[in-house]
Design brief:
The complex is a heterodimer.
Chain A lengths: L1 H13 L6 E5 L1 H18 L6 E5 L4 H16 L4 E4 L31 E9 L3 H11 L6 E9 L11 E5 L6 E7 L8 E7 L8
Parallel strand pairs in A: 2-3, 2-4, 4-5, 5-6
Antiparallel strand pairs in A: 1-8, 7-8
Helix pairs in contact in A: 2-3
Chain B lengths: L13 H17 L14 E6 L5 H12 L3 E5 L9 H12 L5 E6 L4 H8 L4 E6 L5 H15 L6 E5 L6 H12 L3 E5 L15 E3 L2 H5 L4 E4 L4 H4 L7 H8 L3 H4 L7 E3 L12 H6 L2 H21 L9
Parallel strand pairs in B: 1-2, 1-3, 3-4, 5-6, 5-8, 6-7, 8-9
Helix pairs in contact in B: 1-5, 1-12, 2-12, 3-4, 5-6, 5-12
The chains are: A alpha/beta, B alpha/beta.
Chain lengths: 204, 309
């Protein structure tokens, strides 16, 4: 653990044009927030058998898994976890030439009459949540839809309000906020980092 | 790949093929939903311009377009004989004036989709041109093999039948060799194109040798009316020497899959015992065709308006 961290910070200082990165939520912070959110979900969901966590990939997937484990630990329930890619529902595909890579969708059970909690890592404009709600409706008619955002960075462009927030992180619109693991993917220790996207060489 | 015409597998990079297969895998899930439709291409128009009759491919493109919420228009000018190039281009220009976003073209003559693509602002998908290419068929075949075998790289694919007149064979030869498979072809000598080995395939005139150790056996449709007498002594003789049945299939690997682009001439390319008892893969090919065409429509429609350039 420690050696790899020193190494990465060394490479960071050595690389000349490396963008400034700031960790706004570390692994401990993320896990603590997800434990609190699990308690909040239990408070608000009166019928746990109907609870259905739906992760928005990629970042929502590990978060939903942790939430599921927390719910199991606290209340002894096995919560169904689904994955819902929102790409085909994006509102910019009609006009843009961009063709984003599709991600897996895996909805193991029907959403009809369920208490659905969408799980996303970073919420900004609210457009992804809008897309996720539309996608969800094509799978059936949930009774309630609520949203978890690990990080709420503001800059909303649609009337979307989060039901559960890990942390409010005020940011500049051009900053890049993302969830990542210690091996670059979404495995191992997680952290949320803020990068100034105006710097060169930032891979989103 | 994104925003360009899809005229043949010959022009595609391996990366693009992989991107299409990756996209198709996710598109397939859409077909399993309660509402089998996503709003991705809402407000876009896909025109099926079919000069040659086709029911399967056209229906497949139509369903694919509709699952993506595009408006799909079928346009079949009909051509009993080969039309003059001018009239085809006139048709294309007329169509262009209606502002389609994607045009799917099938024609009995090789190269027509390319000619049309040169005139049209919208990207063109070749849905089969003469004996040239049929790229979406090859893509769905690769998709099916990847699904059944978990990979394409390193597999041995035996394509059996009228290679010379087959656009399906040509596209599959390009596709499977690009994806790292060993491609063998088997046919009576007159049906093997000259210098076919320059495409990186091994040609056989013995079915048994071609099937030896094959992972995939792909039979092509024999067009009775076109071939009998000229290329083949008789259809019956063809089925006796190149028809695939349980017995000849024993030369292939135990878990070999049998594919056919359809429609099957039962008892000619494939014996009744195969089509009746193992129809699974052939129907999967049809099913996968919709996902592949959704993927291609999604990727290709990303082209920016040419008038803006």
């Amino acid at each position: 653990m420690t050696p790899s961290k020193t190494q990465s910070s060394k490479t960071g200082s050595r690389a000349q044009s490396a963008p400034i990165q700031k960790t706004v939520l570390d692994d401990v912070g993320i896990r603590r927030a997800l434990m609190r959110i699990a308690h909040e979900i239990l408070e608000r969901c009166e019928d746990l058998d109907r609870l259905y966590l739906v992760a928005i990939p990629n970042g929502g997937v590990p978060l939903a898994r942790i939430l599921g484990a927390n719910l199991k630990q606290i209340a002894g329930v096995d919560v169904v976890i689904g994955v819902l890619d929102t790409t085909l529902y994006r509102d910019d595909l009609k006009t843009s030439q961009e063709r984003p890579l599709l991600r897996d969708t895996e909805m193991p059970s029907a959403v009809d009459d369920r208490f659905v909690v969408l799980v996303d890592d970073v919420v900004k404009t609210g457009r992804t949540i809008r897309a996720a709600m539309d996608a969800l409706m094509d799978f059936g008619r949930p009774r309630i839809v609520q949203v978890v955002g690990l990080v709420d960075r503001g800059h909303r462009e649609l009337p979307i309000k989060l039901d559960y927030v890990g942390k409010n992180v005020p940011t500049e619109p051009n900053e890049l906020v993302r969830l990542r693991g210690d091996r670059g993917g979404l495995e191992g220790a997680l952290e949320v980092v803020v990068t100034d996207a105006t710097e060169q060489g930032v891979a989103p | 790949m994104i925003g360009t015409d899809l005229l043949g597998i010959e022009d595609l990079e391996r990366d693009s093929i992989e991107r299409i297969l990756h996209t198709a895998e996710r598109m397939q899930e859409v077909g399993t939903r309660v509402v089998k439709k996503v709003p991705t291409l809402r407000g876009r128009t896909v025109v099926n311009l079919f000069f040659e009759p086709s029911t399967r491919t056209r229906a497949s493109f139509e369903i694919a377009g509709k699952r993506l919420s595009a408006d799909v228009v079928n346009f079949s000018p009909g051509s009993s004989s080969i039309k003059k190039a001018e009239s085809i281009l006139d048709t294309a220009r007329t169509l262009d004036a209606m502002d389609p976003d994607v045009v799917v073209v099938r024609h009995g003559v090789a190269g027509v989709p390319k000619r049309i693509a040169d005139v049209l602002a919208a990207p063109v998908i070749n849905a089969g041109d003469g004996a040239h290419e049929h790229p979406t068929q090859a893509l769905l075949d690769m998709f099916t093999v990847k699904q059944k075998k978990g990979r394409i790289d390193g597999l041995t694919i035996a394509i059996v039948g009228d290679i010379l007149h087959s656009r399906v064979a040509r596209s599959n030869i390009y596709g499977f060799t690009k994806m790292g498979a060993e491609v063998r072809i088997a046919a009576p000598p007159p049906m093997i194109p000259a210098a076919v080995e320059t495409l990186g395939v091994k040609a056989f005139t013995s079915l048994r040798e071609a099937l030896d150790g094959a992972d995939v056996v792909m039979a092509l449709r024999i067009q009775n009316e076109r071939l009998s007498g000229t290329y083949l002594p008789s259809v019956r003789e063809y089925s006796a020497t190149f028809g695939i049945d349980r017995k000849t299939l024993r030369y292939a690997k135990d878990d070999a899959i049998v594919m056919h682009p359809g429609p099957v001439n039962r008892g000619v390319e494939l014996a009744h015992d195969l089509t009746d008892h193992r129809p699974g893969v052939i129907l999967d090919q049809v099913r996968n065709g919709v996902a592949i065409r959704m993927a291609v429509l999604y990727l290709i429609s990303g082209r920016p308006d040419r008038s803006a350039e």
